[in-house]
Amino acid sequence: MSAPARAVAPAPPSGPVGAVHALTVGRVQVRPKNIAGSGTPMLWWTLTARTWSDWLPVHVFVVEHKRGTVLFDTGQPLASVTDPDFYPRGPLGWVYRRQARFEVSPEHDLATQLAEIGHPVSSLSFAALSHLHQDHAGGVPQLASTPILVAAAELALLDEKTPQLHGILPEHVAPPTATFTPVSFTPTDDPLLAPFGAAHDIHGDGTLLLLPTPGHSPGSMSLLIRRPDAPPLLLVGDATYDPSLLPRAVVPDVGDRAVQLDTARRLVALQSLNPTLRLLPAHDPNTLTALVAR
């Protein structure tokens, strides 16, 4: 595997938001329906799929801010490719392996890369998770006492009898040491946020806003980064793998299709209100280029 690919958008000339880093913490191949669905039941395409996507990146993001640095998502753990007992046994484990396969190397280690860019785990003010699937929350065990923001609806899945049926592996993404903080979204009258109508303001200054983007999972959320002298950025997790699919109402065949389509409409509306907005998915090969584009 190649060395980790990274990109950084430099700090704007003014405002509290500093540089925004994108790190690659592994690669993934998924089934085509994972990217562009058509309403096919997930179990059916899991059973019948014969092809894989190209290798796609697994990205996490580091957002510098005068009030504290924020990590968005934590990536896929190395153990998923080295530990034969990482996935559940039996049919459920077979489903996990049929839907995605990963490449992760020691060089992609989250804590190592954070230290290399000057933001060791100990320096983080918050982490925020788009959702609790393994390739977004797999690095949680490395975060020690860092407060981790997760949508309340997503955290509630951990209390269900079988969160594994929602794609969540608690033993890998929710260790006893994790400091989860449930996120509730507060109504807002900001006209530029009208498609969502609610947000969670991480630092209380309107620059780092968590938005509810459910569908892929019940508590999926995205991070809107507003910079006064630079284009706004929206880190969307798995709301889409390819922003060009959203205006065509093409969403993954994973999760609640009706809710995903509603989220897609809201994202398109948000972009129409904010024409310079850049959507940065976790698995889009174009994310690094889009982050640094002028």
Automatic annotation (TrEMBL):
Q: Tell me its cofactors.
A: Zn(2+)
* Gene Ontology MF annotations: hydrolase activity; metal ion binding
Q: Where is the Metallo-beta-lactamase domain?
A: 57-283
Q: Which UniProt keywords apply?
A: Hydrolase, Metal-binding, Zinc
Q: Which Gene3D superfamilies match?
A: Ribonuclease Z/Hydroxyacylglutathione hydrolase-like
Question: Which domain of life, per UniProt?
Answer: Bacteria
Q: SUPFAM superfamilies, from UniProt?
A: Metallo-hydrolase/oxidoreductase
What InterPro entries does its record include? MBL_superfamily_lactonases, Metallo-B-lactamas, RibonucZ/Hydroxyglut_hydro
Q: Does the keyword Zinc apply?
A: yes
Family to which the UniProt record says this protein belongs: Belongs to the metallo-beta-lactamase superfamily.
By what name is this protein known? MBL fold metallo-hydrolase
Q: Which organism is it from?
A: Microcella pacifica
